[in-house]
Amino acid sequence: MTIKIHDTNFSGTNGHSPMETELSAAKAHPALAKPLGEASTQEIYAELLSRLGEDPTRDGLLRTPERVEKSMAFLTRGYTQSIEEVLHEALFDVDYDEMVVVKDIEFYSLCEHHMLPFFGRAHVAYLPQGKVVGLSKIPRIVDVFARRLQVQERMTQQIAEAIEDAVHPQGVGVVLEGQHLCMMMRGVEKQSSWTTTSAMRGVFKTQVQTRSEFLSLVRPVR
Ligand SMILES: Nc1nc2c(ncn2[C@@H]2O[C@H](COP(=O)(O)OP(=O)(O)OP(=O)(O)O)[C@@H](O)[C@H]2O)c(=O)[nH]1
Ligand SMILES: [Zn+2]
Q1: Could you read off the pLDDT of 108-118 as tens digits, one per residue?
Q2: Domain boundaries along the sequence of the chain
Q3: Over residues 180-202, mean pLDDT
Q4: Ligand 1 atom 1: the closest Cα is on which residue?
Q5: What distance in angstroms lies between residue 111's CA and the mean position of ligand 2's atoms?
Q6: Fold exhibited by the domain 18-77
Q7: Neighbour-count burial of 188, counting CB atoms closer than 10 A to its CB (0-12 exposed, 13-18 middle, 19+ buried)
Q8: For this structure, is 69 an active site residue?
Q9: Residues in CB range of 6: below 8 A, 6 or more apart
Q10: Is 168 a catalytic residue?
């Protein structure tokens, strides 16, 4: 099964800034009957292990809260990064007006509904008009948005917006193909379904030929 969602029009902004994240984290969640007070993140993970029926004091689990805290910080490090930092001024004035395509960029993200991984490949293209971006910065932009709690549609749009804002090209095309563990190891338990999302901007939206060239170059296989 493949779900294709094209030109989705999510109103999401460019993710949350660290400041916004702090603010929203400070609000009490309805599931929290009592404030957690001074509990540290590691204490909360230890408590979680206990509530799952485990013994957090057994040898194998003793350092698990510490490891999970570190691992979650890595998996969500996009909240502490900005596109400006990542670009690091790697924008160059180059007189090249043919399509630039970086395809098969692997990504790993976490779905915001279950906090389970979804992962796959991103294909990114743009048609410059006087400015190009350092090639490595394109996968870096993908990672800034992947390393947050996401839905695939919003992530697709955020990547397109970031490229658009950085190089003001004639157009941008982004296709993401992902597999969601929340649909594989739980829930509907479908092992072979891939979700394809796309965001087409500028001439990638208005010119069928440009869009077709992009899609034929990336040839999503599924
Ligand atoms: N559109 C979209 N949906 C997603 C994404 N990741 C996970 N989901 C879906 O989010 C939905 C959450 O649905 P709910 O009914 O609230 O949660 P649930 O009971 O756990 O749903 P099931 O997964 O069907 O068991 C599910 O349909 C997931 O497949 C994503 O990136 N985009
Ligand atoms: Zn999910």
Answers
A1: 999 999 999 99
A2: 2-16+90-218, 18-77
A3: 97
A4: 151
A5: 5
A6: GTP Cyclohydrolase I; Chain A, domain 1 (1.10.286)
A7: exposed
A8: no
A9: 197, 198, 200
A10: no
